[in-house]
Amino acid sequence: FWDSKRLEKVTDGGQLEGKMKNDERKDIDPWALACVDSRANFLGGESFSMTPILDMINHDGTVPTRARVNEDKGFAGSGDVLHLTSGRSYSKGEEAFISYGSLSNLDTLSDYGFVTENNPCNSESIGIRMMRSKPFSVIVFADGSIDSGAIGTLRYNLANEEELEIFSSFDTKGSGLGVLVKPLSERNELDVQSFIASTLAETAYDAKSGAEEAENDGLVSVYLKERAKLLELAIQRIKTKYPDLEY
């Protein structure tokens, strides 16, 4: 399904390829593993089940879904029964959906082989490498906001000597890291936001270019378009707050 030639089209900074490598199990039959990953449902504890018919119900991340298992309540003798409740009403003949969970487009693409447009649970990750710093990721959430951990890391990495002196007044147990929740200074915060905006713009450009080149591969094209759209939303949020920001 994902040969090397097709993976080359996925200009997402190596997110899909990296997830596939992390999920790879060379000691297990690939077909069997794919069936379990895409079809099994979690029952609690360490239990999973390959439930007949369930895999015919499609995913919609906006549908509240509850599940419970009634033990020894089989329709034809002993056996457990899985009950699913959808938080949405349906008309006769209308397709019913359940939610597979709060899954990003990367999750559904790698585990189920589909991508949802306007996914309310989507998030995008960008790998960051800076001199004299450990690699880290910037996470963009579905509303275009940036994870606070990445912002805090950038505040520290882009701080000047005067701003770094703030940390010297705290003890060695790490309590000083709490100061990164808020901007260190106006200068530092503008540098942080400029760095994020420029990184988002470059990454969005790669995604959009890849989507155009993969126009004959609908799955890859939609995945990259949705990635670019979310990154551009994040840029717009930054520009709204810092209209004169240069990046």
Q: What does the model show?
A:
The protein has 247 residues and is an alpha+beta fold. 41% of the residues lie in helices and 13% in strands. It has helices at 4-7, 15-23, 30-39, 105-112, 148-157, 161-168, 186-213, 218-241; strands spanning 41-44, 47-49, 58-59, 65-70, 81-86, 97-98, 124-128, 136-140. The strands form four sheets. A two-stranded antiparallel ribbon has the order 1-2. Strands 3-6 form a two-stranded parallel sheet. The longest helix has 28 residues, at 186-213. It is elongated and about 70 Å long. The protein starts with a helix and ends in a 6-residue tail after the last helix.
Strand content: 5-15%
State the order of secondary-structure elements, H for helix, E for strand: HHHEEEEEEHEEHHHH
What would the average pLDDT be, to the nearest integer?
88
Main sheet? 2 strands, antiparallel
Number of helices: 8
Low-confidence stretches: none
Structural class: alpha+beta
Principal-axis shape equals elongated
What is the share of helical residues? 40-55%
Order of adjacent strands in the largest pleated sheet: 1-2
Distance between the termini: 39 Å
- In angstroms, what is the radius of gyration? 22 Å
Strand runs, count: 8
